[in-house]
Design brief:
67 residues, 0% strand
């Protein structure tokens, strides 16, 4: 079972968020690249969980049928 993903961690810069191991930033164990994966709060801000929820898709436009 996967660990519960923290919404607002206290110090997101201390961990790598690239897998379920949540390794320390200076001890990456999974080999998921050479740099740590940032937490979404570092990339998108404190409201990252609601980012994009206000998007409303326009109805698809169809081409007119040829006779």
């Amino acid at each position: 079972m996967a660990k519960k993903f923290p919404i607002h961690p206290e110090h997101p810069e201390r961990l790598c968020w690239g897998c379920d191991k949540y390794c320390a930033a200076d001890a990456l164990l999974c080999g998921n690249g050479s740099e740590r994966t940032q937490h979404p709060v570092e990339l998108f801000g404190d409201d990252w969980k609601t980012w994009g929820h206000d998007y409303v898709a326009e109805p698809a436009k169809t081409a007119p049928m040829a006779d």
